[in-house]
Amino acid sequence: MPPRPASSARQLLSRALGVPWVGKSARGASDWIDLQWSLTVQSLRGVAPQARGRLLDVGCGSKPYEHIFRPFVAEYIGVEHEATFSETAAEQGDKRPDVLYDGNRLPFDDNVFDTVLSVQVLEHTPRPAALVCEMGRVLKPGGILILTAPFSFRLHEEPHDYFRYSPHGLKQLCGDAGLTVVEMQQQGSLWSLIGHKLNSYLGLEIARVGGIAQSMGKLSHEAVEARPPRLWTLPLVMPTMGAISLGARLLDSALPDRTEALGFLAVAEKH
Ligand SMILES: C[S@@+](CC[C@H](N)C(=O)[O-])C[C@H]1O[C@@H](n2cnc3c(N)ncnc32)[C@H](O)[C@@H]1O
């Protein structure tokens, strides 16, 4: 039987993405269109030079930000909650956590890390105050916590999606853990928030490219996307997503709004 056109197009696409320069260009374009990813990476790059010594990445997933921090630290250790991690696509990847635990007490002594990093994890624990206290406990006095959490983001990793965070909430959680916030960064504004929501809908629900994104190493923290992509929508959907991302970036700079954001990044010190 001759192959169905849709499946041969899919095979062609996955073969094309396997060609190094095609895969790299596609990943670069997708990272630029993905406002949440770009803004997170931008803010992490900004604070990475403050990292030092032994770094613990709490809820590291597939360690997508290790390359940003590596040049500044002596050691990079990733720890994950075994049960929730096993439900993500990252579980099948080759960049795995160094340590798995039960999600309660971090399996490290007090005062042993110079830097603790935690990116988009606080929304996934039912007891965020306890987890921030654990991060504070393993930090050495003088050490820093780099914490990012979403302020507005679609439901993901369900049912382990519990909270969203304002800068005041992050300050309170850090303060309660004996940490002082020394820097707070807003990630995006009203326009990137709207743009990201529209693009998520177009990409994930209309074009259904979640599986393609996962084959490029993205969305690894979500469950494996089983739905096939709708390749025939791409000629319309991709340029639209690019235009939305460009418009959102321009409007964010021209008309910033401090009351809306995709998320916030806090840097806190332990005294
Ligand atoms: C949205 S993913 C983020 C993964 C990674 N930090 C990133 O930015 O790609 C949230 C991760 O937090 C992990 N997680 C949830 N509760 C945790 C806990 N108490 N301790 C450590 N990790 C936890 C989940 O297993 C999941 O991999």
* Spatial order of strands in the largest sheet: 3-2-1-4-5-7-6
E-strand count = 7
Strand content: 15-25%
Write down the CATH topology of the largest domain: Rossmann fold
How far apart, in Å, are the first and last alpha carbons?
A: 70 Å
Q: How many H/I helical runs?
A: 10
- Roughly how much helix do the residues carry, as a percent range? 40-55%
The structural domain count equals 2
* Outline type: globular
Name its key features:
disordered N terminus; alpha/beta; 7-stranded mixed beta sheet; 271 residues; Rossmann fold
SSE blueprint and pairings:
Blueprint: H1 5-18, H2 20-33, H3 35-47, E1 54-58, H4 66-69, E2 75-81, H5 82-85, E3 99-101, E4 113-119, H6 128-138, E5 139-150, H7 167-176, E6 179-187, H8 190-206, H9 210-215, H10 234-254, E7 263-270
Parallel strand pairs: 1-2, 1-4, 2-3, 4-5
Antiparallel strand pairs: 5-7, 6-7
Helix pairs in contact: 8-10
Bound molecules: S-adenosylmethionine.
Residues 58-61, 64, 80-81, 84-85, 88, 103, 119-121, 124-125, 131, 157, 221 line the site of S-adenosylmethionine (SAM).
Q: Could you please describe the fold and organization of this structure?
A:
The chain has helices spanning 5-18, 20-33, 35-47, 66-69, 82-85, 128-138, 167-176, 190-206, 210-215, 234-254, and strands at residues 54-58, 75-81, 99-101, 113-119, 139-150, 179-187, 263-270. A seven-stranded mixed sheet has the order 3-2-1-4-5-7-6, sandwiched between helices. The protein has two domains: 24-35 and 190-254, no CATH class; 42-188 and 259-270, Rossmann fold (3-Layer(aba) Sandwich). With 271 residues, the protein is an alpha/beta fold. The site of S-adenosylmethionine has 19 residues, from strand 2 and helix 5.
